[in-house]
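Two proteins were folded this term; both appear here.
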Amino acid sequence: MAIKTLAEMELNVPDSEARKRLTALFDEDSFRELDKFVSTDGELCSVVAGYGTVLGATAYAFAQDVSVKGGAVNKSAAMKIRKIYELAAKNGAPVVAVFDSKGGDINEGMAVLSAYGDIVKASAAISGVVPQIAVVCGVCAGAAAMLASMADITIMTEKAELFMTAPFNTPDGKLAGAGSAANAAKAGVCDILAKDDAEAIAKAKKLVAVMPANNISLAGNDDFAENDADITAAMNGADVIAAIADKNSVVELGADFGTAAYTAIASINWATVAFVATDKAEKLTAADCAKIARFVQLADVFSIPVVTVLDTEGFVPSSEAELAGSVRDCAKLAQVYASATTTKVNLIKGKAFGAAYAAFDSADISYAWENAAIAPMSLEAAKVFMGEEIDASPFNAAALGMIDGVIAAEDTKDAVASAVDLCSGKRVTAPTRKHVNFAF
């Protein structure tokens, strides 16, 4: 059999949607494809993989190619994906995974289970070592859905689908919205919902730019402009964060899940920071607690400072919530904050009552605005139980050493930026243990 030339081999490789997505992800002319000619029984592999730079930062990526057997996963696809994870870990660079596949290659029989197992193990092995960003642009089902959800941040386009079992195969039949991107966002599986491929890839690029390359690198990006916005006491948490952060650096995560809380990756003076705000509703639900806990855990594993803008009366009181185990999510929130060794800065801009204050009370530096109220219970409850008003003044809290200072709203940016910078060299020696036994 005649040996094919490189030109002849290249003719057999189509310019697929998968390659277009990776070309859009990487900087111009920087993408270098790996294992381009890997095949199974003479048929091209259903995964495109390689590396390059994303806004100047080195990154590795793979994209499932739905034009090849519907993007079916087989042993050769698993080999290429596993290699990307391994190279990313060895070289300390993030992984962007683009999902678009109808499922596993059933022609491989039992081997397809081993293929998925290899990918899952490879992803788990680098969790907390380098950032993993999943971009779901088409169907992402079964084990692939599990893999996409294992990523640190999951982005989905509006047309994408993500499910463990096809909705039409479930006992209840096809439920309205089941498997849709909108449903995944509401369930907290999808962190960012994008209108199309272009927006999804753009979000992934921005995240690669602001996230650290790995768990021992500092995170930051100097492409953002300095922010000269004024901060007033009338602002909500999201607006305060937008005013503190560098211009156009804010990327909100989980907007449709746990809607009483706000979480976003951004930067202050070009250093990456994880922001949390709790003032979108008076009280926090189990979903809010789960959302914040996962976000802070992500920040901690990559040593990203956490700035929390606190204004809440506590947790939603409900017999139904208690029966659903909401206290477990509250406990997870408290555990994650308390055990996080990254820099933690709190700004109490409004109310901080009872268990909610305790759950967030592990910051290295805490400030409160002049109009803040800090108390062991709500002011109304205190009047009922104690028969008198209690002193919820932030100055009283400062006198007791509960906070480090009382500041005016207009001084917030300087105070927060200074606190983050002050703690940039933070070192913590934790007790010898395998890991925290978080409440799940």
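Next, the second protein.
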Amino acid sequence: MSSIRADFPILARQHRGKNMVYLDSAATTQKPKAVIEAVSDYYLQHNANVHRAAHKLADEATAMLEGARSLAQEFINAPCSQEIVFTRGTTEAINLVANVLHSLVNQDDEILITVLEHHSNIVPWQMLAQRTGAKLVAVNVDSQGNLDLADFHSKLGPRTKIFACSHVSNALGTVNPITQMVSDAANNSTITVVDGAQAALHETIDVQAIGCDFYAFSGHKMYAPTGIGVLFGKLSLLDSLPPWQGGGEMIEHVTLQHSTYQKPPYKFEAGTPNIAGAVGLGAAIKYLGEIPRKQLIQQENELLHRTVNRLQQLPGIRLVGEPTRRSAVISFLLEGSHPHDIGTLLDQQGVAVRTGHHCAMPLMEFLGIPGTIRASFSLYNNDDDTNRLIAAVEKAATFL
């Protein structure tokens, strides 16, 4: 663990005279030196635009971009690299899908989501429903933060055109039974879209085993730079669907009256891509392949369990959500205190957490609370971080 932490320079930063404790990785992870150096090397040695020039730098940049695409394909076990579309992140990927599926959605159709979803997996579907006259339906959760599977099956019906669901909840850490739900939806002839933003680092992603039509994730939540993400789409769907944005790179031939488009994935990648971001994503995937990731995930889960147990022993602490299977996230409240006040007091002690609704306002409304204090973990966190968190919460309680 100490050698892993040494790979992340920012973890050695001092805040108020102590090493910073970073427990906000669900918002964005810190970056290892390997990723920082890869992005720097690209700009120092290889910077050029891709695909459109006959010089050495362009060839090198193109090879780096397409190399990252192949690494992403392997990372999620996609059948071919043509099924890997680069986006700015999960949000853009889901918006892309919601827009290109427009022609397949009719007024009498239903779009099924869940109460657990991040706004990025709610608002694009609301917008699609408003444009088409379709109905947006949501699966409820139980008091522990698990999806109500009986409710899911009751709402999955002949009118369900699309089912969109998170793999892991960013607000509660709930790991959803995504493979079974996707299978049930597919058997219903429903298009399936999985938000994998919180799962990509903490779960083994195999899109062929999951069987989904689309799977989206962001680089910045798995040690890569911000502004780069991946949309996996089954090639048969990507071939048949129209492009979302028009411009350079995505075209095959253009006249003033008519255009034809490239094959996937380029049909969905209008304009100059985030080449440096893709290089950073490739470096992050390589980094994850070079560390004992499975062992570290196991250690992370054990640390999460110990932290939950210790929080439960503190007076006035209420855990928000105790799902059957949890990944990387603990949400809690301190009785009689606003989450933001606790977050500020923790920051004064050098402990970084996130407070608020976590872009999951429908979930917070369902739970009857304004928000939570969220501590989110990554492979670089250790028992010292938990000790600091518990001590900081105890001290904050004395002020309130």
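The chain has two domains: 2-32+292-395, 36-289. The chain has a mean pLDDT of 97. These notes refer to the second protein only.
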